[in-house]
Specification:
Elements (H helix, E strand, L loop, with lengths): L8 E4 L9 H16 L3 E4 L13 H12 L6 E5 L2 E5 L11 H14 L2 E4 L3 H13 L15 H9 L5 E4 L7 E6 L3 E6 L7 E3 L7 H11 L4 E5 L6 H11 L5 E5 L2 E2 L15 H6 L4 H9 L16 H7 L10 E2 L2 H14 L2 H11 L2 H9 L7 H11 L9 H5 L20 H16 L9 H15 L1 H13 L7 H25 L1
Parallel strand pairs: 1-2, 10-11, 12-13
Antiparallel strand pairs: 3-4, 5-6, 6-9, 7-8
Helix pairs in contact: 1-10, 6-7, 9-11, 12-14, 14-19, 16-17, 16-18, 16-19, 17-18, 17-19, 18-19
The protein binds one RNA strand of 75 nucleotides through α4, β8, α6, β13 and α11.
Length: 505
RNA sequence: GGCCCCAUCGUCUAGUGGUUAGGACGGCAGAUUUUCAUUCUGCAAACCGGAGUUCGAUUCUCCGUGGGGUCACCA
């Protein structure tokens, strides 16, 4: 295609009607990857032409998601010092600020006869559609208002009657064909194309007009968007032709679907990027995962973990899958864990503290439990890493470090042991620990070296289970040595002491 | 319903006119193990169906089936 000799300019154009959906994010990501790979420009454009669906703050939300995800656009609305500003030479990038442009272009089509004014009421349109359905015809507008005389149109407009502007589709035009970078040759007959409304009666354009006008004015080279737009592409091509503009390249991406293989949509639980972030998924893991939904590097490649830079390098539009892909959270969990493990402890602590800890720390502090040191946090991170699928799981996995879990003294006894032996073993370990230098608690190995001989002699389960249980108060936890390593000598002995007296009574 | 699109393990996918159809997630079994998690080993698991082309089709063609998308003054 001409992606090699044309300056690549692509865009992601969401409507600010809520949160950014992971499917939308993937479209944005593919646009981004394609742009970066071709040293092109990635643009964010806000399509707020539906006044009824606008959601307060949604544009800012969208911008923040891109910031949080580390997918940066070159042109578009950005937030600077708390204010929305347009960056780039092709603005404004918010469609509601471009209304005159659409109106002028609609007028151009009106005077060239490529479009016409329509005064039909919603009721009449409904009737026409119903009739066509009954006649087993594709439900299209019947061009009723095309026959209106110029005089009459002027009179009705002057009288303040509401009207829309429709595209005048010539159904004799035959097949409208285009080459899609993902789908290949696509042909749709002009008779299937409706006289689409271009300008609504409220003076706002519809998506079709606005996106074509903007894509042209913003010099968009490749329109990379979701598959749901495939069938309306002929309308857009007709518009480019009506204006006499060059037609951009198209690539329609397969849909992201749920387990029922239906289009992933809001109202189905967590589908917003923000939801995933809040749930404790790392931006880089989510990006990696979503990139692989519908695309893969092929050639027998078995690598699955890709940084954004690697994706930019490897991405290939022609390798994008044609069929839809199921968003499988279980595999995302696996990938997220991989990313968590790759983080260094300091970084992991930082990320956990950022949004997954403060509430817990607050309630602990209300209970009079004091917070742990930075050093302890890093050790906890080291231990939690391999057990954590999401950042949000850190507290649950580590909570016993602040305060040992409540337990029944009887549970201190290992399944193959009895209370007497357990007590004896715990006292023996306590004695060993008491004799240890503080520095022994700096390393898991040193602690192991000190206690393991006893454990091997008396039975590992018999010695280690009660000690671990006494330290954690939990049936599942890291090893006793790892826990002591975090807690330090004093706290470890304290907990052991408590357990011994609990079992003694 | 019209039109359009799609089709390899449950899921994401690799792959080829001749392969033991490969990998990953998940599942199952086992090893390690004081518990959980790791780690390691092994196992089960797919070319939607039918014709045609061909010496030979999972691969190419057609038909069918299934699934999906779209048919707004929403994007």
């Amino acid at each position: 295609m001409n992606s090699d000799n044309k300056e690549v300019r692509v865009r992601f154009a969401p409507s600010p009607t809520g949160f950014l959906h992971v499917g939308g994010f993937r479209s944005a990501l593919y646009n981004y990857l394609f742009a970066k790979q071709h040293k092109g420009t990635f643009i964010l454009r806000i399509e707020d032409t539906d006044q009824n669906r606008l959601v307060e703050g949604a544009t800012e939300g969208l911008i923040n998601v891109f910031t949080n995800m580390g997918v940066h656009y070159d042109e578009g609305p950005m937030i600077e010092e708390g204010k929305l500003v347009a960056k780039g030479d092709f603005g404004p990038y918010i469609q509601s600020e471009r209304l005159d442009l659409y109106k002028n272009h609609a007028n151009e089509l009106l005077s060239s006869g490529k479009a016409y004014r329509c005064f039909c009421t919603p009721e009449r349109l409904e009737m026409v559609r119903a009739q066509m359905q009954r006649d087993k015809q594709p439900p299209k507008y019947d061009k009723h208002c095309l026959s209106l005389s110029t005089d009459e149109i002027e009179k009705r407009v002057a009288a303040g009657e509401k009207s829309v502007v429709r595209l005048n589709v010539d159904s004799e035009r035959g097949e409208i064909a285009f080459t899609d970078h993902v789908r290949g040759e696509v042909k749709i007959h002009a008779r299937e194309v409706d006289d689409q409304v271009l300008m609504k009666s409220d003076g706002f354009p519809t998506y079709h007009l606005a996106s074509v006008v903007d894509d042209h004015l913003m010099k968009i080279s490749h329109v990379i968007r979701a598959d749901e737009w495939l069938v309306s592409t002929p309308k857009h091509i007709l518009l480019y032709e009506a204006f006499g503009w060059e037609i951009p390249e198209f690539a329609h991406l397969p849909l992201l679907v749920n387990m029922e293989r239906k289009k992933l949509s809001k109202r189905q639980g967590d589908v917003a990027v923000e939801d995933f972030l809040k749930a404790g998924y790392l931006p880089e893991a989510l990006t990696n995962f979503v990139a692989l939904l519908g695309w893969n590097p092929g050639e027998g490649e078995t690598q699955e973990k890709f940084s954004l830079e690697e994706l930019v390098d490897r991405f290939d539009l022609s390798r994008v899958q044609k069929g839809s892909a199921v968003f499988d959270v279980v595999k995302l969990d696996w990938l997220n864990n991989l990313y968590i493990r790759a983080l260094d402890n300091k970084e992991l602590v930082e990320r956990v503290r950022k949004g997954f800890l403060s509430e817990h720390i607050e309630s602990l502090s209300l209970m009079g439990v004091k917070d742990l040191s930075d050093e302890q946090y890093e050790k906890m991170a080291e231990l939690a890493k391999e057990r954590m699928k999401k950042l949000s799981e850190f507290f649950e996995l580590s909570k016993f470090f602040w305060k040992a879990g409540e337990y029944e003294a009887a549970d201190l006894v290992w399944k193959h042991s009895d209370a007497e032996k357990t007590l004896e073993n715990m006292r023996a370990v306590e004695a060993i620990l008491e004799g240890l230098d503080m520095s022994a608690f700096e390393s898991v190995e040193a602690l192991e070296k000190a206690v393991m001989p006893l454990a091997d002699e008396r039975g590992r389960g018999d010695v280690l289970w009660p000690v671990r249980y006494a330290l954690s108060g939990q049936k599942a936890s890291p090893s006793p040595f790892e826990i002591m390593w975090v807690l330090g000598k004093e706290e470890s002995l304290l907990r052991l002491d408590l357990a011994i007296s609990a079992l003694s009574v």
